[in-house]
Amino acid sequence: MTNPTQLLHELGQSLWVDNITRDMLREGRLARYVEELSVTGLTSNPTIFDKAITGGDAYDEQIAALNSDGLAEEEVFFELALTDLNEAAGLFRPVYERTGRRDGFVSLEVSPLLADDARATIRQAAELHSRAAENVFIKIPGTEAGREAIEESIFAGVPINVTLLFSREQYLAAADAYMRGIERRIEAGADPFVPSVASLFVSRWDVAVHEQVPAELRNRLGIAIAKRAYRAYRELLASDRWRRLEEAGANPQRLLWASTGTKDPEASDVLYIEALAAPDTINTMPDSTLEAFADHGRVGEPLPEDGGDAEEVLEEFAAAGVDVDELAERLQVEGAEAFSRSWSDLLGSIRAERERLAA
User: Fold this and answer.
1) DSSP characters over 37-70
2) Please, what are the domains in the chain?
3) With the C-alpha atoms ordered 306, 307, 309, 314, is the resulting torsion angle positive or negative?
4) Cα dist. 241→38, 173, 236, 244, 250 in Å?
5) I need a surface site. Which of 44, 51, 254, 321 has the fewest CB within 10 A?
6) What is the b/e burial string over 325-353, where b = at least 16 CB atoms within 10 angstroms of the residue's CB?
7) pLDDT one digit per residue (tens) for the chain, 359 residues
8) Which of 146, 59, 70, 155 is nearest to 111 (CA)?
9) Strand, coil or helix: what is 238?
């Protein structure tokens, strides 16, 4: 019997795991995901690394060695993260080469504290890219300042994972920034092939409105928003503007479903994986969701390119008093604030670990 994860892979969707720890690498769990569950990439964020670093002693030796270098906590973090991510990138290197540099990526985030500073984000993205393996995405939020940094980084040839996107409009703005960077490369005579993905967050929509809407609408908003974005994605790939870039040698910026672990204990634990099966997309999911889908997930019909019932469902939410445009902006602001808090917690954890080991 074919594993459900393999069926998704055969449909044309890439499965990435939204996690990394040194133990995953040492114990061969990530390698098992690649071999058995068709996983072809991974994503990380400050919360994931905070849990990894404080969850055991796997990082103690490297932290102790870095203690003598007089580095700030942020620099210690990037040393730890790049060690893990470069090793994981090596594991995905065969995928990266086999797919013509279109898959097999891992992702590292710039400091969330730079979210409103485009110039500083551009500098840090370039610096991290210079220290990372070829198949490492640098994550930049799709905020207003982030879009400037995305365009400049793409123009500089830095592979970018655009994060913190919540709506069709935010996705299209990020895609426009990506294409402007590619167009400038073409004008400058540079190689237009610069990989990128655009990460649309899904489950946070349903968490935000859970208590506001009637029971029959719960856990339906995130999927409707994703369907609307998927239609825009397909329309963009069919546009004259994109076709000109593709003919020049550019690579499509793939749409990525993020935040696809089910938050409602009364809903299916594979809700967003089953609902968002679509060719030419990526779904990055927590380990538990990946394992659950491999165990009992089902692959049905892929997402319709026209968005299916997205607009009808969104009209139901509007009738229930949900302003999706206002909520999209709020979710992006809250997401950036949450990442900043996670970043501060992460640096605090590293500081505590350094003090413990020094003592």
Assistant:
1) H-EEEE---HHHHHHHHHSSSTTHHHHHHHHTTT
2) 4-353 (3.20.20.70)
3) negative
4) 33, 15, 8, 5, 11
5) 321
6) eebbeebbeebbebbbebbeebbebbeeb
7) 689 999 999 999 999 999 999 999 999 999 999 999 999 999 999 999 999 999 999 999 999 999 888 899 999 999 999 999 999 999 999 999 999 999 999 999 999 999 999 999 999 999 999 999 999 999 999 999 999 999 999 999 999 999 999 999 999 999 999 999 999 999 999 999 999 999 999 999 999 999 999 999 999 999 999 999 999 999 999 999 999 999 999 999 999 999 999 999 999 999 999 999 999 999 999 999 999 999 999 999 999 999 999 999 999 999 999 999 999 999 999 999 999 999 999 999 999 999 999 88
8) 146
9) coil
| pTM: predicted TM-score of the whole model, two decimal places | 0.97
By CB neighbour count within 10 A (0-12 exposed, 13-18 middle, 19+ buried), where does 90 fall? middle
Backbone φ/ψ region at 101: left (φ over 0), alpha (ψ -120 to 50), beta:
left
Strands (E), the chain: 14-17, 39-42, 106-109, 136-141, 160-165, 196-201, 254-258, 281-285
Catalytic residue set: 139
62's tokens: 């490297």
In 190-224, which positions are buried (b, 16+ CB within 10 angstroms) versus exposed (e)? Answer: eebebbbbbbbbbbbbbebbeeebeeebbbbbbbb
